[in-house]
C-alpha cells in the first residue's frame, strides 16, 4: 500500500517501522461485528503454514468491549491463550464503516509525483474534510499501459484511526500495520490462486445490510465495491410477504435456503421463498453482469473464472446453485484455510473457516510493502 504525504502521515508512522527479523510473523486480527477472529502463519518449505487461529464471540457488544480496556485486555488474553500464538504483534483492519473506498482515475502530470496526484484527486472527492482523514491508496491492475492510472483510495477519519490504535494498544497488542478489508481479501484470494496468474476471481462477501464485490486479476486487486444486497434485506422482504417476525423469516431462510438454481425437487416453502425473493436476486444479477462487463473492459476481453461466496448469506444451503444460475460460472464457499498447510502441533477445526477470511488476509500482509 502506498502512503500519501498529505493530508496525514499517520499511517506512515505505523507502516514505516523496521521489521525485527527475529520476531514471529504478526497475527492477523479482525474485530468483526460479532466476534474476534485471529490467525497467525509461519514459514514452511512450500509456503506459509497455519500456526494458530481462533474465532470467539464477544461477551458484550463490540463497541462496548473496545471502549473498556480492562475487559478488552482480558478477552484478548483468553483468545491468545486458546491457541499456540506467538507474540502480540498484529496487523489489523479498520471497521468497514470507518473507511471510504474511492475508485479513482488519475493522470500524473510532468514533474508531479504519483502520490501528489492521488492526494489531489482524493481532496476533490472529500472536499473540505480531506485534511481530517488518513489516506492511502492501492494500484488497480489493468491491461492498459496509458498515462491514466486506476487506484483505490482508502480514506478514514483521523480520530477513528487514532481511537482504534488506542484500543489495540490498550488490549496489550502491538500494531505493526493497519490495513483495509478489500486489500486483505485480495491478498487471500491471490494466495489461493497463485498458479492462475492471469485469471480473474470474484468474491461476493454478504453482509447484514450491504454486500461487497471484490475482484482480483492474478495477484492484484482490480475492483472492490459495495452493493445494496444483504441478509437484512432478504429477511425483511420475506417477513413482510409472509407476515412473519424477522427472526422466524431468518430461520426459514437458513432452513430452506433461497430456492437454488431451479425448482425441481424443491419444497413448497422453498419455491415460495424463491418467488418472493426473485426481485432481490434479479437486482443482484444486474450487479454481477456489470461486474463482468467491467472486468472484460479492463482486461481486454478476459472473463471471470470463478466466484467465491463468504459472509452471512453464504450459510444458506442452496446459495451456491442460486448464484451459479445468475453467473453461469463455478461457484464455491470461500475456505480461507485452504490457502495454507498446517504447522505441527495445531489442528484447525471446521468451524474456523466461516469467519476467518479477513484475519487470514491480514496475516498474509508483508509488513515492509503491504
TrEMBL record:
Gene3D superfamilies to which the protein is assigned, alphabetical: 3.30.1490.300, 3.30.420.40
Which is a Pfam family this sequence falls into? PilM_2
Which superkingdom, per the lineage?
Bacteria
What PANTHER family does its record include? CELL DIVISION PROTEIN FTSA-RELATED, ETHANOLAMINE UTILIZATION PROTEIN EUTJ
Q: What is the recorded name of this protein?
A: Pilus assembly protein PilM
Gene for this protein? Answer: pilM
